[in-house]
Amino acid sequence: MKSHIFPAIRLTLICLIFFVGVYVAIVYGFAQFSPNKGRGEIITQNGKTYYSNIGQLFNEDKYFYSRPSAVNYDASGSGGSNKSTTNPEYLKLVQARIDTLLVHNPGIDKAEIPSDIVTASGSGLDPNISVQAAEIQVKRISKIRGIAEDKLQALIASNTEKPFLGLFGTEKINVLKLNLALDNLK
């Protein structure tokens, strides 16, 4: 029995030292070379501070809507709903989001709705939406704000982030940055 306990205790101590000390120091060291030293991108506008890498709720009709969140945009505990795409409760929730989107955006067809605007991401904190999700909201925002649709399309184009190295991922738009730019339009 002693021949198993002491090696297990030693392995536990080695893992504890490595994962609590060495690994954390390595990750922290790499973070110091990233923008804002690993604290995320901070935007300050009109005396308010925002973190652009964390999804935030925008559900007023004068703004582009955010991607839904399974954790109510609470960054202290990210996570998905863990419900299957065949779960009746999940299907009701998605259908309610689709219905709400159609009520607030009359004139769009249900088939035009991209999935990212009615489903939460795996973390529940995705700050981005697809270009298609932004474009289906243009008519509503144009009508409410009195801004020409082509000006909103240009705003979407100027806030579109291309895939990493042109290969990895899809085009996306940070909703916070888009809505802050929208507020700055004259």
From TrEMBL:
Please give the coiled-coil regions recorded for this protein: none
A GO cellular component annotation in the UniProt record:
plasma membrane
Q: Where in the cell is it found?
A: Cell membrane
Q: Which domain of life is it from?
A: Bacteria
**Protein keywords:** ATP-binding, Cell membrane, Ion transport, Membrane, Nucleotide-binding, Potassium, Potassium transport, Transmembrane, Transmembrane helix, Transport
A single Pfam family, by name? KdpC
* Magnesium as UniProt keyword: no
Q: What is its membrane topology? A: Single-pass membrane protein
* Membrane-crossing segments per the record: 12-31
Q: What GO molecular-function term can you cite, just one? A: ATP binding
Asked if the Swiss-Prot or TrEMBL record annotates the protein with the keyword Lipid metabolism, the reply is no
What quaternary structure, including any partners, is listed in this protein's UniProt entry?
The system is composed of three essential subunits: KdpA, KdpB and KdpC.
What HAMAP family does the entry give? KdpC
What role is this protein assigned?
Answer: Part of the high-affinity ATP-driven potassium transport (or Kdp) system, which catalyzes the hydrolysis of ATP coupled with the electrogenic transport of potassium into the cytoplasm. This subunit acts as a catalytic chaperone that increases the ATP-binding affinity of the ATP-hydrolyzing subunit KdpB by the formation of a transient KdpB/KdpC/ATP ternary complex.
UniProt family annotation: Belongs to the KdpC family.
**Name of protein:** Potassium-transporting ATPase KdpC subunit
Q: Which organism is it from?
A: Arachidicoccus soli
Gene for this chain: kdpC
